[in-house]
Amino acid sequence: MKKNLMGIFIVFVFIFLTLIGRLIYIKHFDGNQYERSVLAQQTSYNRILQFKRGSILDRNGTVLASSIKVFNLILDPEVLAISNDNSKETTVEILNEYFGINKDELLEYINNPRGRHYVPLIKHISFEDVEEFNGYLEEKRGTNLFRGVWFEEEYIRNYPFNNLASNVLGFYSSDVGRWGVEEYYNKELTGEIGREFGLINEGLYVQRETRNPKNGNNIITTIDYTIQHFVEQALTKFTNRVDTLNAMVIVMDPNSGEILAMASQPNYNPNHPMSLVDHFTEEGLKNLSSEERLNYLQRLWRLNPISDTYEPGSTFKPMTIAAALEEGILTGDEMFLCNGHIMVRGTRINCWRREGHGEQTLSQVLANSCNIGLVEIGEMMGREIFVQYQRGFGFGERTNIDLLGEASASNLLYSVNRMGPVELATNTFGQSFNVTPIQLITGFSAFLNGGELVEPHIVKQIVDENGYNIKSIDKKVVRKVISRDTADQVKEYLLDAVADGTGRRAYIEGYDIGGKTGTAEKLPRGNDKYIYSFIGFAPFESPEVVALVILDEPEIEGANSSLAISVFREIMEKVLPYMNIYPSESNIDTE
Prior knowledge:
- Belongs to the transpeptidase family.
- Keywords: Membrane, Transmembrane, Transmembrane helix.
- It is found in: Membrane.
- The chain crosses the membrane at residues 6-26.
- With 591 residues, the chain is of the alpha+beta class.
- 37% of the residues lie in helices and 22% in strands.
- Strands 2, 3, 4, 5, 10, 18 and 19 form a seven-stranded mixed sheet that branches. Strands 12-11-23-22-21 form a five-stranded antiparallel sheet, with helices on both faces.
- Helix 3 (87-99) runs antiparallel to helix 4 (103-111), helix 9 (225-241) packs antiparallel against helix 20 (562-578) and helix 13 (317-326) runs antiparallel to helix 19 (484-499).
- The chain is elongated.
């Protein structure tokens, strides 16, 4: 018995000494490797923590652009390469089985880590898919041997209403805002990345340090989602029926300069800004060269209402009349005779109505859009006064709207020295010089707000992620252009232009609406290419909204400014009730 016990004791001692020896060997020869392997599981080394780009909202808090959290599946080959258990095989098997990632590709990363701790495998996985995968690990396979894989947080830009306000918003690509609000306010929308450091020091101690990201600020625009929707709905309906080179609308508060809606057709989906599938057939896309594709994309991205220039035509005529009234050259009691044309230094200038309008009051000259009456007013005023007020209304200079790409059109206006009698004559009725749509609606608004040139703006407020105010963009008066008396007098004439003149189709039952039509022949003359426009406002007594509609080369027989009026009317019939501007009982036709 004693011999047996002694034998068992010797065996246990031998086994114990063997284990001690093995532990000493591992500690002495392989200890660093094992400890580093364990520590590697606990550290992210140098992991970037992404910030959340600020959202863009409409004036009422509707989100027009936001950043949605997604996840990237990241492989850490170095962790698996130094593992001595079955984690490599298990991890490869799980990734292949669940995500369909090629085993040979994974093994190539793991067997040749080259010090890499960051290899993206799959990008932009949703939160729901990540949760589903974690459930799969927990229930089916466990997580004990699944190592060296983690989910990196990232944000992708999302535009919930797709094409809506795309030209105003712009898009986000390659970590920077492009076009529209995204580009102009890129600095405010952009946050600061954070980092998570994990360092193994000489004593094999993991030292962690985290610098949290700072999210970007939110931009609250002046855009009203509902008005923007009405505008784009009307534009889409029109362009589906009539082909145009471009169709655009601006809706603005004439008192504050706040842009309530701005749109142009064709447009694009900022969720897929490089896609042309909505604009070309599959065969057409194949035939596009790289240069043609880029040119067409830039045409879609371009914010035409601030970047395009055109001859304003008759929509400029109120400015000419206002200048003469303000200077006392006109009183409003004058009479004008139009026989269909007038000679200026040997050049025949025609009225659009070749047989003439006959005898007219000043109000009728504007209501009938009579070129001859405007030419006579220009001769009475002279080029110095005309140029002074032309520039006073903001033409030839940028409005400084808070969007990139605004054209000034300064080189498309005549100076006093370069303006001869014929140039003065044609300028008075809106020809021979160019403006931008945003310049026109800004200058026109002076008639509606008492004579002030107000700087237009697209952003109302900048707030941080917690809603605290960073900056408010308030009304800015550039200068006083005309007196309130002059503004009110011209406003009366604009009311007559809708009641009894060329804009009569803009009348909406129950509302006192003022406005002016415009027709401009594009250069070179004689090619039968026209831009038709209409600018109108409501209500008459205290205007709260002004809208400009421009249609560039509508391809329809008998095209004229009534096309622009039809778009204006369709928009305003919805916008006015929405803005709580209701018909006046005294103006409702009961017949």
